[in-house]
Design goal:
Elements lengths: L13 H11 L4 E5 L2 E4 H17 L7 E5 L4 H13 L2 E4 L6 H11 L3 E4 L4 H10 L4 E3 L2 H7 L16 E6 L9 E5 H14 L7 E4 L6 H5 L2 H7 L2 E4 L5 H11 L3 E4 L1 H9 L13 E4 L6 H8 L4 E7 L6 E4 L2 H4 L8 E2 L4 E5 L12 E6 L6 E2 L3 H7 E2 L2 E10 L5 E6 L4 E3 L2 E3 L1 H8 L5 E11 L3 E10 L6 H6 L13 E4 L13 H6 L3
Parallel strand pairs: 1-10, 3-4, 3-5, 5-6, 9-10, 9-11, 11-12, 12-13, 25-26
Antiparallel strand pairs: 1-2, 7-8, 8-18, 13-14, 14-15, 16-17, 17-20, 19-20, 20-21, 22-23, 24-25
Helix pairs in contact: 1-2, 1-3, 2-3, 4-5, 7-9
């Protein structure tokens, strides 16, 4: 494993690092978005102008700034400007309904809402309803901040200021707003640099939504803090991604399994020039082995990273040097945080035994916004309870089991859907599937396969027979329910709660 270099991220505000790059390498490319290119001098100028304008409008330390837009350089500019003045960025999930967005606006109470033109109608409505000033990203924002400037040395933010407020998906009840501070961003970046052997010469392609901590923090922000080049796409199109890798000499990209599958299935892949691409980070807990091996056959390392919104998100990860030999593992504990596997009694589990992942370090959230009970319940002596289950082997490698909330307790036995899904991953008759628990009068719960057929030939008995001899009998799914499509979130991940709802 490459040596950790904590010196890469000094204990300073993250915006000051951008200012440092602008002074040292002003013409080095920082962000490319469509036909727009910003070198580090231009990026720093935009950050300084934004910070100066925000300060002039009365936004101060601790105030919130909401961004409601598809991927755009303004997300990074606003984040860095917030860092400079000590404000907090609130990225809004554009896939949410107006009612859901309104609740988050009420909870966060931002002093300003920046929005993309494509969301103008909803943004203006919720901004007016919540009494929040709003302005469109683009010419309006550019004109507003023109003539303003706040150099890094004049900023009122501190190296410990809270910086990011990100709402979790909220599978039950209201979503929780995780607050991440400057140390969390720096610590996450340090581990990202280590995981991906990142250097200032790397070119990172960003296609995941920037309202998600994974899209923002797994590779793009760490690359900028190091002086690298980030190419931003505002959505995912496999042909455009393959073309961009060649055109920009992309070296790293973060994906989720659905995106990796779409890239592998696209006809353009056969002739695509991927010679510059040395690493794919995959931000998911359980990735079909077949997808990983298909990329490994092309000599491209697929590196798994595990974490949560509350861990910034990096906590456990592979590195390129072990990725080819540890397929299926989520890697080692992050070098700048601590990880434990804990049982229901709060005691550490023996090697090889499944328990809950707890994480401690500067990368974890400081608190949940306006939710002290949730903060108290989720953090014990600095340890964040992830709600995810895993085991660690004698080599220190972690193997994901399942979400704690997804565990199916059948006849007193714990059944992990992810384990069953891995068994089914090499079955050819299904286009996509998930395994969830269904209430049962005898067993309490039983596992059920919810699937989309690949063609029309596949039958229930074919699916159930695939488990024979591959896994303990008590774990076998008891039923198969065929549907037209599985519900997914903004990152393309299947939403288990909504899958369960399909069962009635």
């Amino acid at each position: 494993m490459p040596a950790l270099r904590p010196d890469l991220i000094p204990a300073r505000r993250i915006d000051s690092l951008i200012a440092g790059h602008a002074a040292a390498t002003p013409q080095r490319p920082a962000i490319t978005f469509g036909n727009t290119s910003l070198d580090y001098a231009a990026l720093e100028a935009a950050v300084a102008a934004m910070a100066g304008w925000l300060d002039r409008t009365g936004i101060a330390g601790g105030d919130r700034i909401a961004v409601y837009a598809r991927n755009h350089p303004e997300s990074f500019i606003t984040l860095l400007a917030a860092s400079r003045i000590g404000a907090i960025l609130v990225p809004l999930n554009w896939r949410l309904s107006a009612a859901e967005l309104s609740w988050q606006m009420q909870d966060a109470a931002p002093s300003l809402l920046l929005y993309g033109d494509e969301f103008a109608e909803t943004a203006v409505r919720i901004g007016d309803n919540e009494g929040c000033p709003h302005i469109a990203i683009g010419d309006e924002v550019t004109a507003a901040r023109s003539g303003h400037s706040m150099p890094a040395e004049q900023g009122g933010g501190t190296p410990s200021s809270e910086l990011l407020l990100v709402y979790t998906s909220g599978t039950t009840g209201r979503p929780k707003g995780a607050v991440l501070a400057q140390p969390a961003m720096r610590t996450n970046a340090t581990m990202s640099h280590h995981a991906y052997a990142m250097t200032p010469d790397d070119v990172v392609l960003n296609i995941l939504p920037l309202f998600h901590v994974g899209g923002l923090n797994i590779q793009p922000l760490p690359a900028l803090l190091l002086g690298g080049h980030v190419v931003i796409h505002d959505g995912f199109d496999p042909a455009e991604v393959l073309a961009a890798i060649h055109r920009h000499h992309v070296t790293q990209i973060t994906v989720v399994p659905t995106i990796l599958g779409a890239l592998l299935a696209h006809p353009a892949l056969r002739d695509a020039d991927l010679s510059s691409l040395r690493m794919i980070a995959i931000g998911s807990t359980d990735v079909p082995v077949a997808l990983i091996e298909a990329m490994h056959e092309r000599g491209i390392a697929v590196v798994q990273v595990y974490g949560a919104t509350e861990t910034s998100p990096t906590a456990i990860y592979q590195t390129a040097d072990i990725a080819f030999g540890t397929v299926g593992s989520i890697g080692h504990a992050g070098t700048a945080c601590e990880v434990r596997i804990v049982g229901p009694d709060g005691k550490e589990m023996p090697t090889g035994e499944v328990g809950e992942i707890w994480v401690r370090g500067d990368n974890i959230l400081t608190r949940y916004w306006n939710n002290e009970p949730a903060s108290t319940a989720s953090i014990t002596n600095g340890w964040f309870h992830t709600g995810d289950m895993a085991r660690v082997d004698s080599d220190g490698l972690y193997w994901f089991a399942d979400r704690l909330k997804h565990v199916i307790i059948s006849g007193g036995e714990n059944i992990y859907p992810a384990e069953l899904e891995r068994v089914l991953s090499d079955f050819d008759g299904l286009a996509e599937f998930a395994i969830v628990g269904r209430a049962d009068s005898r067993w309490g719960q039983v596992p059920v396969v919810v699937a989309v057929r690949q063609g029309t030939a596949c039958q229930e008995d074919d699916v159930l027979a695939h488990f024979n001899g591959r896994i303990a009998r008590f774990k076998h799914p008891k039923d198969v329910v065929f549907v037209e499509a599985l519900p997914r979130n903004a990152l393309g991940k299947i939403v288990a709660a909504e899958v369960r709802a399909l069962l009635g």
